[in-house]
Design brief:
This protein is α+β, with helices and mostly antiparallel strands. The chain folds into 3 domains: 238 residues, Immunoglobulin-like, CATH 2.60.40; 170 residues, C8orf32 fold, CATH 3.10.620; 206 residues, Jelly Rolls (Sandwich). Helix content is 18%, strand content 40%. The chain has 10 helices and 39 strands. An 8-stranded mixed beta sheet has the order 5-4-9-2-1-11-14-13, with no helix packed on it. Helix 5 packs across helix 6. The longest helix is centred in the first third of the chain and has 17 residues. The chain is globular, with a radius of gyration of 30 Å. Keywords: Signal. This is DUF3857 domain-containing protein. InterPro entries: DUF3857 (IPR024618), Transglutaminase-like (IPR002931). It comes from Pontibacter diazotrophicus.
């Protein structure tokens, strides 16, 4: 590997004199470090706003691909839809000596659907210009222009958007008509914006130079927190005749409320049915659950988003008759049904997805990709995921929990926080009974109760896998060296904090090691911790833990006749700022009982605490590996 990089350094240095485009421009390449896959020589983005509803983006870039890990940057993706049109895409590639390999032709550009995670059908498409080459290093240049009649979104300037990427020069320019105000948020920018004025436009310019590759650290912040980023957004905008203002969350919410207004009308027959269904409900929450169950049994998720339909829901009577809709439509439908039975609720815009960062709360703008329903209750708020036919009412989980949502009310938008989940909410509570024979094999009966985020994987397996696939999946999940699954079963409890109970009957092969008259058993049968990140001499960034959890194991070993305990590990209690670990072993007649608990919290910690995390996890691995020694009494 090192020889390959040394070869690349020599080759790339030649580009300082040799690499030249047909237009006569010189691509100078500084000597890359070993962690560099890609060099952006220059990147220019010019966004010209022409009115409240129209604008043009022009983009130009020159990139050298140093190895196969950078090949994805030899493809340029240009997204478009009903409201955005691609004017042109140009490009060319050059070899290590600066000789042109090829000019981009129409056959090198594919046009495909760009269906998002939350849509099954929409008008979003993408043109992909491909100049991939197989001999390294090589350089690609792309240029395109895109016109838009949807200025809900302005570009984001993020030139260093991945690891192992060096940026020599990049710029972003926004041209605003005089009298229209640009809003922007700068992060990690070495220099602030430069403002100039022409006769017709106010011009905002950002530039960066000589950005060395950045690599995220284990348990560290996302890359976006570490690199220069500029977010831009309008103050006033218009989409297909709907004018809005984005200066505050309140005003942005008023625009969404305008789109939703009057679309909650249900057929009289459906209203009467809902009233009858909920007539015997004793509490408002019981009414909500009845309506939610009805929604899940009647509808399915199908997204058809064309033009303004990307933000405006289908009318409730359409969903009622067709039985399908997207997240906006199904949320609107549920809201209309709850309104019929006297329950008030609100649309809530949210950025959904496991591990997805929260929105920038100090920068009102369109940062959302999903809609859920918020139902205020007397004692607590109930959140409903209206696109799911199986989700428990009130559960947000890893997809939408612990982040900000924008409530859409008649008075405008209001930021609120969705439910967060503590360690005791995300629990794995396991009880195992093991019967050992004299050869060290045996059988195990395992009952595990998973709650909160720890039940999500099991819930997914229950909903989406056939029984035989579930069995195969369980073989991948159970961390025992040698075993067979004799029987398994799942039981679910749907609630605000959902529960999955898993029952396993296992046949164990060589669960214990026999040496002479001694038997060695590792009492932590299924929950051994195995991962410790690399220790760094100097930690640069904060330590970030995104999920809290609690694991509790009780393992009972029934010894074969004639064996007694010779050695028991001492009780262990280990604490740190990151969590607490406890383990103990006791003897009760012919039974040996092992108890272990491990609890870790979530949050952000100072960089210097990283050493404590490494120590904590190393100790957990050491304690999890301890053994109990049994000896056979020979007459």
């Amino acid at each position: 590997m090192c020889k390959n990089y040394i070869f690349l350094w020599v080759v790339v240095s030649l580009l300082l004199l040799q690499l030249q485009t047909k237009a006569g421009s010189q691509n100078s390449v500084s000597e890359p470090s070993e962690d560099t896959n890609i060099i952006i020589h220059s990147e220019e983005t010019v966004f010209t706003v022409e009115s409240l509803k129209s604008g043009t983006t022009k983009y130009k870039v020159s990139i050298t691909i140093l190895n196969s890990n950078g090949n994805h940057r030899a493809k340029q993706y240009v997204h478009y839809d009903k409201l955005r049109k691609v004017q042109y895409i140009k490009g060319a590639s050059y070899d290590r000596s600066g000789k042109k390999i090829k000019a981009l032709k129409n056959k090198d550009i594919t046009d495909v659907s760009a269906i998002s995670d939350f849509s099954l059908y929409e008008d979003n498409r993408v043109k992909i210009a491909d100049l991939t080459h197989t001999v390294y290093p090589y350089t690609v240049e792309f240029e395109y222009a895109l016109t838009s009649e949807n200025l809900l979104f302005y570009p984001i300037f993020n030139p260093q958007d991945e690891e192992h990427l060096k940026v020599e020069k990049a710029s972003y320019e926004v041209q605003m008509p005089v009298g229209m105000r640009l809003r922007y948020l700068e992060s990690n920018m070495p220099q602030p914006v430069k403002k100039t004025t022409t006769a017709t436009h106010e011009v905002y310019t950002w530039q960066v130079q000589n950005l060395e590759p950045v690599e995220t650290e284990p348990y560290g912040p996302e890359l976006e927190e570490l690199v220069p980023v500029v977010r831009t957004a309008p103050t006033d905008f218009e989409v297909e005749g709907y004018k809005g203002n984005m200066e505050s969350w309140k005003s942005y919410g008023l625009w969404v409320e305008q789109l939703n207004k009057g679309r909650d009308v249900l057929p009289e027959a459906t209203k009467q049915k809902l009233v009858e269904m909920t007539a015997k409900a004793k509490t408002p929450e019981e009414k909500v659950r009845i309506v939610y169950d009805y929604l899940q049994g009647k509808t399915r998720y199908v997204s058809i988003q064309l033009g303004i339909g990307g933000w405006q829901p289908f009318e409730a009577n359409f969903v009622d008759s067709k039985g399908y809709g997207d997240c906006k439509a199904l949320t609107n439908y549920t809201q209309a049904m709850l309104k019929t039975v006297g329950i008030n609720s609100y649309h809530a815009l949210i950025r959904a997805g496991g591990g997805v960062p929260d929105i920038k709360t100090d920068f009102p703008s369109s940062q959302f990709n999903h809609v859920v329903l918020c139902v205020p209750m007397a004692s607590d708020t109930l959140w409903l995921e209206c696109t799911s036919q199986t989700e428990a009412a009130g559960y947000s989980g890893s997809s939408t929990g612990g982040r900000h949502a924008l409530l859409i009310t008649p008075e405008g938008g209001k930021l609120v926080k969705t439910p967060d989940y503590a360690a005791v909410d995300n629990a794995q509570l396991r009880h195992i009974k093991v019967k050992l024979d004299e050869k060290g094999s045996g059988s195990a009966s395992v009952t595990t109760r998973y709650t909160g985020m720890q039940q999500e994987a099991r819930d997914n397996a229950i909903q989406n896998l056939e029984p035989e696939e579930q069995r195969k999946w369980l073989y991948q999940q159970v961390k025992i060296p040698a075993f067979e699954i004799e029987k398994y079963a799942f039981a679910q409890q749907k609630d605000r904090l959902p529960v999955v109970t898993e029952q396993l009957e296992l046949s164990l092969r060589q669960c214990a090691t026999i040496s002479g008259k001694r038997m060695f058993v590792s009492p932590n049968l299924m929950s051994k911790w195995t991962y410790v990140p690399n220790q760094k001499e100097k930690r640069l960034t904060e330590v970030v833990r995104g999920m809290a959890f609690l694991d509790v194991d009780t393992v009972e070993f029934e010894l074969p006749v004639g064996y007694t305990v010779e050695y028991l590990p001492q009780e262990v209690v280990h604490q740190s700022v990151f969590g607490e670990y406890k383990a103990s072993v006791k003897v009760d007649g012919q039974r040996v009982i092992y108890m272990r608990s491990m609890q870790m919290g979530k949050g952000r910690f100072k960089p210097e605490s990283y050493a404590q995390l490494i120590t904590f996890l190393n100790n957990v691995i050491k304690f999890d590996s301890q053994q109990v020694v049994f000896v056979k009494n020979i007459p």
